[in-house]
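## retry 2 of 3
previous attempt timed out at serialization; input unchanged, resubmitting
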Amino acid sequence: MAKALELPAPSGSAPSKEGSLRWLLTLGLLTLLSAAIGGGFGLVMVSGIEKQVEEKYKALPHKAEVVSPYTGNVAVKKLAPVVTNLAGSETDWVRIEASIVYQPGGDHNPDILVAEARQDMLSYIRTMSLAQIQGPSGLLHLREDLNERARLRSKGAIRELVLETLIVQ
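## retry succeeded, writing output
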């Protein structure tokens, strides 16, 4: 039989496998070491921040209870629905139902307060466009503007104008 030729093993093949294994082990150890150091540093930072927050929280004066703005002598009166078109459009209509929270007594007649608030709300809504009342921020701005106008019109007798429904068609 013919003898097969055997090639000599390349020099350094065993040491290259051993060297790459050492590099992988070194890389793994360094990764674990950096993760442990990073985790420890994070825990130290979190505990330090928690202590600072607790110290600042303890230094703040604590409020006992929140007092409702509707305590005391207040009454509620419903306004007649306001139906009008919006500015610049004959097809966009708005219907608003609202109530006023006011201080009874004094020199203000509640029926006159209701009529003035309704008239002012109607004139204000007629100046608005559909884009101004769209979305949550538009509704919030409308509510704030109507409240401010009602307070100014009544010279402080109306505490708040409460929007019950708003329908845009």
